[in-house]
Amino acid sequence: MSFLRAFKYRRKDTAVHRLDPRSKFLLSTILMAVSIVFTDIRVLLALVFGQIILLSLAESLREWLSSLRGLLFFFAVIFATQLLFGGTLYTGFILSLRLLALSSSMSWFFLSSTPEDIGRAMSVAGLPIELTFSFTMAIRFIPVIYDEFQSIYDTQRSRGLELEKGGFRNRIRNLMPVLIPLLVGTIRRTYEIADAMEVRAFGASPKRTTFKPLRLKSGDYLVCAASAILVALAAYLKLLGIE
Amino acid sequence: MVKIVVESLYFRYPEASDYALRNISFRIVEGESVAILGENGAGKTTLAKNLNGLLKPTEGSVKIDGVDTRNLSVAKIARKIGFVNHNPEHQFFAEKVEDEVRFGLRNFGFSEEAADKTIREVLNVFGLEEYRGKNPFQLSGGEKKRLAIASIMAWRPEALIVDEPTIGMDYAQKLNIRRVLRSIVSEGRCVIVITHDVDFAASICERAIILSRGEVIGDGRLRDLLSDDTLVEKASLRKPFLIELEKETGLTGLEEDFDAISSTLVEVFQKCRS
Ligand SMILES: Nc1ncnc2c1ncn2[C@@H]1O[C@H](COP(=O)(O)OP(=O)(O)O)[C@@H](O)[C@H]1O
Ligand SMILES: [Mg+2]
Fold first, then answer.
1. Complex ipTM value
2. Contacts by residues B220-226 (CB-CB < 8 Å, ≥ 24 positions apart)
3. Nearest CA in chain A to B83
């Protein structure tokens, strides 16, 4: 789970954090696409290097580094499958590098954008508010539900529950004392939130105003320009025959 | 009987930058009743989880009967030291009250016969026998709390840690829980009450350990500690009403008659008003 830390928003005040989520999303998507279409080691290294610069601008290198330990597991899987199914150490390395470039391109985006920002970018893109609101709420409540899970698990362990014990069927059965209280709590919370939203007139008027309207600033134009150049550069490299 | 020895305990949560507990040392011996007091976020729950092995010290050690908790499973410790979570709803999953109690007994290898007998006894002691077949989630707040304690006391641990037993409880419910905890103390079992309700703590515990920002700032007789103005202020607590009253009047043992005293006081105040 520790690699998930690379995607958890941290409140910071940096140039990257201040960017409009839409332009960040654009750049992140393009970086992702480029990582997927190239296997050339120079391109992939350049991608990783460029994102390290982005991450350090966002003062998030530490989070990214600590998540690498979690990625090690996936690297191991890649190498193992490559060696098993006729690949070489080199292809294993290239694929790992690509995974690193891919995950970094999402990492800096999620590390520097609040769930609200992402939700707003989605609704500006034309998605209905019910959907984007559910999305931001879901992200918001992941840590809350995780804390609750921890507390429930601790409580049941204090009553002698041992999840690691017994065969497969036993282990599944042993999950019930943890899952049921978690489910009951979550469903109950859902109703409470629905009530809280209703008393504050969510959905009462079809037209919503925005407290903080999204606005593109000079940095965003820079990012968009960089994205365009990146696309052009990628196309040019492909024309040169670089895979 | 159980003995808990804490030596130079430091604890830090894996993702936190700062220690939640710093340089904590104390020992708790058989039959002691101890209140762990302190403001919100002082580290009381973290300390409790270190005592029953849910968390292991970052530095220093916690020993149960001479064995380091790092070498013991949570289940092993739980058999000796019960822990009641502050939120009973974090433990209910069975359809019936009796099965909620049965869960722990099964985990600790009680035979079905022994379990049946124990369930009957414990529900009786905790005043829950009429709810035996009811769904735990449908009980009142006070009953849920008592069921949570009952489901742990069922296997007769030698010590019991209760986290925030009075949270969200009304006065009558508090009295009930106090009665239950006091009867456990009177059996010679060790009871550790985590709370910031000083009156409640004073009516159960002889000893207090006061935590503030992860450090022990007082450890000793509860009455002495809670008479110390600077200490009480530093821990964001307040002096227990009854102890104050006893001091002012020179009387002793007032807490035995707590109910009588509070209703008498209400009358006195009403007379004064009119
Ligand atoms: N799971 C956790 N991860 C990180 N920090 C935590 C966690 N649980 C508690 N803390 C922190 O540890 C400190 C002590 O918390 P806690 O033991 O719950 O205090 P108390 O029970 O006295 O209110 C607080 O600063 C809290 O924010
Ligand atoms: Mg607590």
1. 0.88
2. B222/B35, B226/B198, B226/B202
3. A158
Q: How far apart are CA B206 and CA A119, in angstroms?
A: 54
What's the pLDDT score for residue A4? 62
CA dist A93 and A104 (Å) reads 16
Q: Are residues A106 and A166 in the same domain?
A: no
Contact state of A160 with B79 under an 8 Å Cβ cutoff: yes
Sequence-ordered alpha helix ranges (H) in chain A:
15-18, 21-37, 41-57, 61-84, 89-112, 115-124, 129-157, 168-199, 218-239
Instruction: Specify whether the CB–CB gap between A38 and A79 falls below 8 A.
Output: no
Q: Which pLDDT tens digit goes with each residue over A211-236? A: 777 788 888 999 999 999 999 999 99
Judgement on whether residues A4 and A75 belong to the same structural domain of the protein: yes
CB contact under 8 A, B54 and A157: yes
For A91, the domain range is 1-113+213-243
Q: Residue A3 — pLDDT band, cuts 50, 70, 90?
A: low
Kindly determine whether residue B103 and residue A155, on different chains, have CB atoms separated by under 8 Å.
Answer: no
A105 lies in the same domain as A136? no
B159-163/B190-195 β-pairing: parallel
Number of domains forming the structure of chain A? 2
- Please tell me whether residues A5 and A107 are part of one structural domain: yes
Contact B10, B21 (CB under 8 A): yes
Task: Considering only the beta carbons, identify the residue of A152, A158, A177 that sits closest to B78.
Answer: A158
pLDDT score recorded for residue A96 = 92
CA-wise closest residue to A5 among A55, A62, A47? A62
Give, in order, the Cα–Cα distances in Å from B201 to each of A187, B194, B242.
35, 8, 11
CA of B184 to the centre of ligand 2 (A): 22
What distance in Å separates residue B228's CA from the closest CA in chain A? 35
- Ligand 1 pocket, B167 CB below 6 A? no
Q: Please list, in sequence order, all residues whose beta carbon lies within 8 angstroms of the beta carbon of residue B177, skipping any fewer than 6 positions away.
A: B142, B145, B146, B149, B165, B166, B169
Same domain, A95 and A157: no
> Of A198, A160, B201, B156, whose CA–CA distance to B192 is shortest?
B201
B38 close to ligand 1 (CB < 6 Angstrom): yes
**What was the pLDDT predicted at B146?**
93
